[in-house]
Amino acid sequence: MKTQIIKIVTLSFVLGISLFTTSCKNNDVMPETNFAETGNHSATRSGNFAILQFDGEKFGKAIETYMNGKVAGYGYNVMHDGVLVAGGGGGWARKQFESNPVKHSYHQRQGIASSTKFVTALATVALLEKYKIPLSAYVYLYLPVSWKPGETFKKITFERLLAHRTGLVNNGGTWEGFKKTVEGPIQQDEFDANIRDYDNINYALLGIILPYVVIKKTQSLTNQQLLALENFSDNWYSVNGLGFQFRNIVRNYVFKPAGLQYWNIMDYAVWNNYGLMNAELGTKGYPSANGTEPGLLKGDTRINGGAGGLYISPNEFGQIQLAAAQGKIVTDEIYEEMKTKRLGFDGIVNGVRGKYYWKNGGADNHETMIFDMGRTQICVFANSGTSQIGNDATIIANAYDSAWVIK
What we know:
By secondary structure, this protein is an alpha+beta fold.
């Protein structure tokens, strides 16, 4: 980051959001969560005849059987009918030859790459609902005032951006790169045909757009003030500028309503219960399950979290999934729309028990997969890309179908 040319105020007033500092804890251990008694909570009977019910223990064992030995380390979390029914992990978050080796588990945090887009989509929709902005609204209305969007870009809606149906050209994740994407030509054929073309640029732009939604809706800064800030873009587009604003939106509109204990310090960089920590001590990504190759540090250093990877545990992510499914982050109606239109989701498996909506991610020797099955929310995170869990949605879907048993 270049030396600051002008001083940017932290702008907490821009969002109307109060920052809170976390209280000191005696240790850095995540609170234990008791599993529900599997075998009773989802069963129903007709007379004396039992019908199929979900066996969380069986499903958890299926995940472990598949993952053990295939990856360096992993953790998973399973919520069913609003209750934690399975969670665990295996292997190492930091292998034994590293300093301070750490075992992986459903409480161990790691980078989750593009599965983060599920959270970004929730934050976007929650903010739009807050300000009564429809998904059909044009995103150009909430761009930096010094940018001059092209005529086709002016036709891009929030829905198209979240669905990767924009035809945008990715010119890199810098201020100038984003500006070129907005002002330059797009892939017109893709836009006209409304083709889904997955590209990080769609979500990376939200790291700038969402703060501008708040700024413009609250009229907390004038166009003249914004121009002054944008003239020093290295300072404005920074961890303490727009990056600060974006993280606070996600914290207040997703992490907080999800009831997460550390909602006000959760981050995209490596962090613990007290705040940011040395990335060298965090979960590393390994190129093999059992080899002695050095692990990669969490590699995402982008200051906007739009397309960047959160650093989060399966248990924390599972709480976000459950809160979304229960209508605590966005309304039930729009959450269903998110699933069917693949806003923050990548695909759909037609399972035995209905449609299963999924999102995956992979980067820096990590692979992740999340699912919303309606009654069941699942996430599996691994810190090596050596299984197929993040590439083949049928692995989890088939194991889920097989975990419904008669009792």
